[in-house]
Amino acid sequence: MKISLNWIKDFVEVKTDMAARDLVQTITMSVCEVEGFEETGLHLKEVYAAEVLSIEQHPNADKLSLVTVNHGKGTSRVVCGASNFVVGDIVPYAGEGVALSEDMIIKRTEIRGVESFGMLCAEDELGFSDDHSGLMILEKGIAPGTRLADIYPDQLDLIMEIDNKSITHRPDLWGHYGFAREFGAIFRVPVKEIKLDMEFISGDGEGIIRVDVLSGELVPRFTGLSVGDIHIVESPHRIRHRLTRVGLRPINNMVDLTNYVMLELGQPMHAFDANRIAGKELIVKMAENGTRLMTLHQKEAELGETDITICDANGASVVAGVVGGMDTGVYPSTSAVFLEAANWDPVSIRKTSTRIGLRTDASKRFEKSLDPELTLIAVQRAVELMKLTNPDLKVCGPPVDIINKPNKPIRIETDTEFICRRLGKAIDDNEIVEILEFLGFGIEKDGKQLQVDVPSHRRTKDVSIPEDLVEEIGRIHGFNNIAAQAPMFPIERPVFNHQHRFEQEARAVLSKSRYHEVVNYPLTCQKTEDPYKIKAGTIMKLLNPVADHQDQMRTSLLPHFMQTILENQKITFDFKVFEFGRIYWKNSAGEIEEPRQLIVASSKKQGKAGDAFYQIKHDILNLFSKLGIANVSWSPLANEDRRDYQHKYISAKINAQDAQIGVLYSFSPEFADEFGIKEDVCIAELAFDTLFDMTKTDYLYQDPPKYPAVNFELSLHVPRRVFFQEIRDNIFAVSPLVRRVEFLDVYYPKDLDDVKSLSVSIEFRSSEKTLDSDEVRDIQDKVVALLADKGFKLREV
Amino acid sequence: MEKEFQALEKAFHQTLDTIKQVKDLEGVKTQFLGKKGKLTGMMKQLKDLSNEKKAEIGKKINQLKGEFQSSIQEKSNALKKTEFQLKMENEWIDITINPYESDSGSIHPISLVQQRLEDIFVAMGFRVLDGPHIETEYYNFEALNIPSYHPARDMQDTFYFEDGHLLRTHTSPIQIRGMETVKPPFRIVGPGKVFRCERTDASHDSCFHQFEGMMVDRNISVAHLNYFMKTMLAEIFESEVEVRLRPGYFPFVEPGFELDMLCLLCKGKGCKFCKQVGWIELIGCGMVHPNVLRSGNIDPVEFSGFAFGLGIDRLAMMKYDITDIRPLHGGNLNFSRLFSVS
Predict the structure, then answer these.
(1) Which residues form the domain of B259?
(2) Pick from B58, B89, B120: which residue ends a domain?
(3) Could you say which of B111, B115, B230 has the minimum Cβ distance to residue A484?
(4) Shortest Cα distance from A194 to chain B (angstroms)?
(5) Closest chain A residue to B228, measured at CA
(6) Do B232 and B174 fall within a single domain?
(7) Rounded to an integer, what distance in angstroms lies between the CA atom of residue B304 and that of residue B16?
(8) Is B98 inside a domain boundary?
């Protein structure tokens, strides 16, 4: 919303020596957010009234003329394209070097072979309106050489763009008067009061329109007035220019004045052509389902039983609080009007405006809970403005004023100590009282005790409790004047979030193992998840997605993570990435679950089968070690557990402490081809919550072995698809003296098809004595014999 | 005998001179000093001599033996030295290459900033809490003093599920869940993902991250809030920061503020980064609304508190000079690699 400083100055004296930037800063710090500001009309100090002395045809262009003007400092010849003026007219003249806007600086130019000295201006070029139909014609009698800034001083203005969101709780700030009141409090200067005229209220004669409000619950107040003997003409320039400056297009005196009153007081109004109201009666009621209404925006609205309408004998003619209808609107021929200013239920207006997709300046205000006291004042102000163009208008009777809900007074009991305590600063009692009074609050003070009466304009929504008053005092005093202060509190035993610390540790370990952390969206779609055949509970589907590809919650990190991998394979084939995140579903008991998942990937240039697999296995073992997870084992994925895209052999179940905590796998060649996965990619999916819940092993010191160990290395010929694990288990079974069995190496002899040569290192040690050579030989023989017995023969050298 | 000694000595040195490798010295040892070696052979001849002669010749043999041994040792040392030198000469490597993986790994900027924030507040005695992303209207709105008719509840801001649940639009539900688990006085923070029904552009995303905080005690004031906000920002940006509190509206606080930080780049003069304002809007905060305290079964007469919420993404973008919010999601390596020092 745009706010004009000059308009505010109609009601309050603002120090003129304040720079625009400082004024804006004042509003920002004490009232609401200002998104931007613009000082208008500065160029008018250099534009002069000029009298047209002669008009000649341009020798080389039919549509151009050569105009000689007297601009007070002499005469100049200007090439001009307009033709709406005659000799003797007074028009605006901008000479060489004058900047009308940033990108419009007047230069001496040659137009079709004739030099032009300066420019004669249209309204849009000077910022008065968007009219470019011809030159702006000034009033006769203005002396040539008079600065336009002196003719139209109101044009030298400061326009501030207020962030609407920052005043959603302040219905009083939706008009200029509200800002005037704020300035009054900030600068402690009196604000011009707007009073109801008793003569106006009692009225004269008889109204021509009857009003009946049927849905009173949703219409706290309805005010209206018939006015006759009027003419629809253009508004005075001051009103037109002001409306233009704050972003509204002037239409005619009647439409403009309803807008003007709305921008001034915050109360939207509607003007009916009184002669077009069928039956001379307006009934305010809920629409019947399926009601259709052609609005002033030339758009048909379909209404239902939740929408308030104002009807005449022909049916609905206005969507209450949102938009007027074509049939009963004001036309150039209109000679009598019915001015309506009502107070509508904010929730109802918002629902209607949202439903029919029309948010108007009126509905935006009504949904903020306007002050019901405004309606009558608005009508009075409208008549006052109407007299500017229609001094002989006839007010018909006293205004219609139907009050359905009393505007209940609110009194807050508080004390000045409470206010200071909440702010954390001692503010003088007098200042507190003064601020509240300037903002329109009524005060009774007894010592530190305050009885505060909330004024009508702050009563509908935002001020009802002592804390609200703390805000009023704080913002006008300046929150920024409250110094930071550390609170005193006792030191307590710390309570850590172990889950976060666990996650942070995992993140640190993985990044130190050269993994990059990635973050993907938790929103996805079925099409993205389908190929991965994830088994989850009931999928959480959104009711109102913004995009088709984000209409449900992910049930696994995998699908988006795969996109990350594919995307990054365009950059390099050698990388390692991981992601932490929640996955979502509803379980069979109907409860929503959000378990955490950790997913890890390695992409490598294709080398030996299993390179990427072993890489991740290595890194995960390191991770588990750092996280204190012991007893980790790996077993092949059973056929029924394996998803079809997982590799038949390069895949494993990861177990710890007898529970499955994840899977590690590469992709089947068929799937890799289908999805465009190149080279060697391997993935580990880990149930991070399960991991967190596991027993963590802490370091436990033991005395180093007293007696030396004996190492024994052997190479075996074993069938290719026998797991090392099997060999190891067999060797351990030989004797308790076997302390360690480690894999050393494997190779596949070319001359033997089904056999691999497996080298193993074994450590024997006794905790009671040094083993002598006979004992060592004895165990070695037993190991060899047992392996031979199982069919694993020593490789002959 | 004398001649024999001289011949032997000569033969020894001639043989030794021909040796070029350490391993061949063993042969020389055997040939002259071994059990069947030449010097040992001469010892055997001693038995035929007189005792006097025996002593004289024996002494001579021992002397030769000593000389041979030290000559061999010397030769061995000299050969080893040459061999080591040669070995080293052949071990030239290109130290300017890096044949192993060069990627250093990284932690995502959102995680970095979140961890830093947690650390700062944990150090000041705050407890870190979590909350679900899929929330109820009660926790996300009602308990936070956002009544059913409030515009914030509109479908255009909030993602709803078919069963009436919703995706939390802010981390503030953690305030309510926090009050259900801890008794006042308390200090809590809660980081996490939040969701808004918004189209994505350079500064908006439908999913982003917030950091919530709340302190409830007796007589907590705006001055205290100010202290924590300043401290937090000074720690995050590792420099003293200037902040300003101005009125801002959030239904769950009263009074409510927007906290701006003086632009670190232009120091308030106005630049591209702060959109010529000189200040950067960072934190929504305020004194906890009495209705919110009541939602948490806390007596608003006895206790008061402050609460704040800030965008982690925005803070990360400021800290690391990221100009577009979109690359934060997706995990492109070209983005990730900027978060590892190399």
Answers:
(1) 109-339
(2) B89
(3) B230
(4) 27
(5) A486
(6) yes
(7) 98
(8) no
Token representation of residue A485:
């202060």
Locate A240 and state its tokens: 């037109």
**Bridge partners for A755 per DSSP:** A719
Classified as helix, coil or strand, A379 is helix
| Nearest in space to A694 (alpha carbons), one of A721, A658, A718 | A658
Residues composing chain A:
797
Residue B212, beta-bridge partner list: B190, B309
Examine the domain organization and report whether B14 and B143 are in the same domain. Answer: no
Q: Which residues of chain A have pLDDT under 50?
A: none
Sheet holding A516-517, edge to edge: A516-517, A575-582, A596-604, A680-687, A659-667, A646-656, A632-636
On whether both B200 and B282 belong to a single domain, the answer is yes
pLDDT the model gives residue B64: 85
Q: What angle do CA B11, B13, B17 make, to 5 degrees?
A: 115
Q: Which residue of B has its CA nearest to A478?
A: B246
pLDDT digits (tens, 9 = 90+) for B102-146: 788 999 999 999 999 999 999 999 999 999 999 999 999 999 999
CB B296 within 8 A of CB B175: yes
What is the rounded average pLDDT for all residues in chain B? 89
Asked whether residue B229 is domain-assigned, the answer is yes
Q: Is B103 among the domain residues?
A: no
**Test the A interface: residue of B127, B136, B159, B205 with most A CBs within 10 Å:** B159
Average pLDDT over residues B269-290: 87
- The per-residue pLDDT for range B184-239, each reduced to its tens digit, is 999 999 999 999 988 777 778 889 999 999 999 999 999 999 999 999 999 999 98
| DSSP 8-state symbol, B263 | -
Residue B154 has pLDDT above 80, yes or no: no
Amino acid at B34: G
CB burial class (10 A; 0-12, 13-18, 19+) of residue A182?
buried
- The number of domains in chain B is 2
Instruction: Please indicate whether, in this complex, the C-beta atoms of A544 and B340 are within 8 angstroms of each other.
Output: no
State whether B122 and A496 contact (CB < 8 Å).
yes
CATH number of the domain enclosing B317: 3.30.930.10
Q: Which domains does chain A have, with CATH numbers?
A: 2-41+158-187 (3.30.56.10), 42-155 (2.40.50.140), 198-403 (3.50.40.10), 410-480 (3.30.56.10), 498-693 (3.30.930.10), 710-794 (3.30.70.380)
pLDDT number for residue B155: 61
Confidence check: pLDDT of B1 > 80: no
Whether residue B74 is found in the same domain as residue B124 = no
Residues 521-550 of A with CB under 8 A from B: 521-523, 540-546, 550
Look at residue A797 in the predicted model and tell me its pLDDT.
58
The verdict on B258 and B309 lying in the same domain is yes
Q: Is the ipTM of this complex over 0.90?
A: no
A519 closest CB neighbour out of B108, B155, B161: B108
Q: Which residue has 């180093």 as its token pair? A: A704
pLDDT in tens, A764-788: 999 999 999 999 999 999 999 999 9
User: pTM, whole model, 2 decimals?
Assistant: 0.87
Cα separation, A32 vs B257, in Å, equals 10
Give me the pLDDT at residue B293, please: 97
pLDDT of the residue at B199: 79
pLDDT of residue B156: 66
Name the 3-class secondary structure at B262: strand
